[in-house]
Protein: Putative iron-dependent peroxidase
Organism: Rhizobium loti
Amino acid sequence: MSGKNWDRVPIDAQSIDAPLSLSAVFLVVTVASEQSALAKVASVLGELDDLVKNVGFRDLGGRLSCIASIGHDLWDRLSPGRRPLELKPFAPIKGAVHSAPSTPGDLLFHIRSERPDMCFEFERILLDRLGSGVAVVDEVTGFRYFDARDLLGFVDGTANPTGLDLPASALIGDEDADFAGGSYVVVQKYLHDMQAWARIPTPEQEAIIGRTKIDNIEIDDDDAPRKSHKSLATIEDADGNEYDILRDNMPFGRPGQNEFGTYFIGYSRYLWVTEKMLQRMYIGDPPGAYDRLLDFSTPHTGTTFFAPTRPMLQALVEDAQKQLPAAR
Ligand code: HEM
């Protein structure tokens, strides 16, 4: 271990490996069709780095970070003719019992900090800068719940890739050299039926998730009649190689409104991996044996984005600005 105090080091914009935080905001906006709105968005994306510094430097211990990700349609407006290989709109899924909708979104801002007030301040300034050319279509403030549990009571995020496995799972490599270091991002806002979940006994909940509830130990369900969430979300190729994604899910809710949710966010090197996880959850393996987590969790949004690296974002903005009217 070096003697460096990591708590005091600013986190660059677009850092996908930023640490799990106590607080997060997931902000999804659409961009109006006028060229002036696009020009404004390009100029704000160009200054994102400075915006993170302006708020983050006020308390480096707050560990503020922000990742801006761009949806398929906005990508084509900013950079016609040159796009990451797999980038496409979220494809809705229709299972026999449960469906995943596809919902609009041009930009996703994933804002994280140890301090809810820093997330709030950053979002406030960001929206103020973006102005009337964007419309907020979804805004969720998430929080860390005890030992990183979801509101169903299970520890969420344990199997995430760490160390060298993190870039290998979450960041594009040589297979798409122009976009290497970027990441595909899929988000879904889930609402839980807490009353129904509370009615089923803990061993059954554990079989659904694939881990024990209190001490978070993996349950081997190879011979179980029905695969758990953990097993359905495990993707292997014919040679037995596993493909992972990086999840930074956060609970959110308003007990007074009976609103209890999980904001799912997955960063992946290959979009097909996240899509395959969703297929297995909704269609089932074998088909029909869908993820029973969905009997208690309903997705209200579903959107795909691409998170460029910091230099990629700068280059994208500079190229776009050559074709656009100057932003006011
Ligand atoms: C594992 C919760 C949605 C992918 C887990 C675990 C929990 C959990 C508690 C076990 C601990 C862990 O390894 O993190 C949830 C909840 C969801 C949700 C509450 C929404 C209601 C999703 C979705 C995907 C996904 C939509 C993918 C598209 C995964 C993966 C694992 C996992 C890859 C790790 C599997 C392994 O052990 O290798 N999830 N999840 N989850 N989940 Fe989810």
